Amino acid sequence: MDSTRIALGSIVVGIDGSDASHEALAWAHEQALLEGRGLSLLHALAPLSGGVRASLISAGIDPVTLRVQTRQDARHLLEAARAVVADRSPDVDVATSLVELDAREALVDVSHDASLVVVGSRGLGPLLSLVMGSVSLSVAQRAACPVLVHRPHDGIRRGILVGVDGSPRSMPALEFAFRQASLRGEPLTVTHCFWDVAAQDAGLSEIRRVLAEMTGAMREKFPDVDWQVRLEHGLADVCLAQESDVADLVVIGRTHPRRHLPFLAPGVATAVLEHARSNVALVPDVG
């Protein structure tokens, strides 16, 4: 239980006891059933810094005793989460992992062996970005595998939306979106956003041709998917965030952590993550 080693290809979900992590677990559990994969539940205990230890001691609290109790509470938390999955789906292979590491580093570490990492949009940690938890944001930007950031849905949502830029780097995100649409029986919208109005006459016919080629391979691989291509005039982050109002899942690509060139621009992925009102999956391009 004290290692970040997980079963190769499993779906990892971060567990911290928050409502967001419970909802993320439910989504990850459903995904594990759909894909026939194992589920790995991970809880990370950040190491106590020297300053924190000194503060505890000055307050009359023994850091060692506190750490023992914290570990015990964390194990109970993981076992309770495992029991929830086992009660609903006894056949799903569920493993738990408790590590003494910053949650961001732990989840990025396991992403090299996972097929998917699932996190809630907000947790119980003290660090938050303007809108979403810093753990979710950091992991989504740095993980080696796709990361799904789960958000509670208001009202009825349906459909999957994937943003593509027309380059080969879009293919992993496009395939991920087609696969999810096939697994979940959801319609898929492939969206390309453009800003240069002056170039639209010459450029749009070319992007239609490129998108037709890209989707052609996916149509053969996932013939059951009901899909459409949509060209939108506007900034990519604004268009995708607006369309997330009705979608169940928005899929976007991002630069693989081993690459240093921007894909859809780092700010686009971050903006969609922070402003979309649906689940968001970030899929790394080929490293």
From TrEMBL:
<dbReference type="InterPro" id="IPR014729">
    <property type="entry name" value="Rossmann-like_a/b/a_fold"/>
</dbReference>
<protein>
    <submittedName>
        <fullName>Unannotated protein</fullName>
    </submittedName>
</protein>
<comment type="similarity">
    <text>Belongs to the universal stress protein A family.</text>
</comment>
<dbReference type="InterPro" id="IPR006015">
    <property type="entry name" value="Universal_stress_UspA"/>
</dbReference>
<feature type="domain" description="UspA">
    <location>
        <begin position="10"/>
        <end position="149"/>
    </location>
</feature>
<dbReference type="InterPro" id="IPR006016">
    <property type="entry name" value="UspA"/>
</dbReference>
<feature type="domain" description="UspA">
    <location>
        <begin position="159"/>
        <end position="284"/>
    </location>
</feature>
<dbReference type="Pfam" id="PF00582">
    <property type="entry name" value="Usp"/>
</dbReference>
